[in-house]
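Entry
Fold in token form

___
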Amino acid sequence: MNIQTKGQSVSLSHYAGWALLAMSLAGCTFALMATFAARSLFKRRPQSPGTEFPAITLLKPLHGAECGLEAALAGFLKQDYSGPIQVVFGMRYTGDPAIAVVESLKRRFPNRDIAVVVDPAMHGTNRKISNVVNMMKVAKHDYLVLTDSDITVPRDYLSTIATAAARPGVGIVSCLYAGKGAGNFWSRLSAMGLSYHFLPNASLGIALGVERPCFGSTVALSRSTLEAIGGFEAFTEHFVDDYEIGRAARRAGLAISYPAMVVQHGCDNETFVGLVSQELRWARAVRVVNPLGHFTSFVTHPFALALLGAALLGFSQTASLIVLGVLAVRILLKLQIDSLVGTRTGSLLWLPLRDLLSFAIFLGSMGGNAVEWRGERLRVEKSGLMSQIQG
């Protein structure tokens, strides 16, 4: 009996090991496809600049003076754009450190049309979108560009957005993004997750037509489009507000356009705990609002799957070669992304650690719907709505 049980155990380990290796090879196929998709998206022939430059209101909701905030915001005030630009900065409290950063920018760019809104009024559970609703009271122009505070953009950002928005049927323009670390190890490790996992996978999803998401890096739309989807007020109770805005636009029959441009998302994590908390929050929220897509992303962790499979097979010669082959594919993807973005997000030596951490985050996100966001404990429902957890 014991021998039989032992034999069954060995057999199960054998089959499980080979199943994991097979999934890792499938993941490698997806990684190669993602590499090609990213190259096709960002190396495609740029569109001719538009002849119309609509007046634009830039909406920048702020919360705190995060690392590199002034440099990131200054990029929006240095735009090479022929049309009128209004920049609206919004904070919820007079004591917010971001106010000092905005005042510094007003002194540096005295000729820019800058408006500042400080208003604590809440219109729902989502503080950011409540802030945006308050900011809309002073927005002048009919075309709106909402971006997260930690986004860095090139000087032709608005020109590129305007060109993409002019295409027939386009309701929203959004941008893919890479990570940009603040300089310390944990921030750079966090940025690597965006550049080498999120960016290629999102590029592949868009190329295959599996997903047409909207990203917080850029939500550019006209007032008429915003009104058609219910205004920002319709998203004040949603946790993943950018995703829901995109979904509402698609339901209204409007297309989402992604120009051949990568912006950068600043990562300022200072500790391992902060990194895990942030990434687990977003992974868990994505799982709640898009469970099938999140579960099937299991295969996008080929290095971790190969390592587990090889361990179950005792790191046999064949299994070990597969692990090395998978790692080589991941290295190829990293080098391609670095080339496309124009900068190296993180060290090649950190890539295996980053891949294993991403897989651990994925596993941790499979349970629970509670997240921590700016000092609050929130519960994200299947509908995407969120509520506070008391106590």
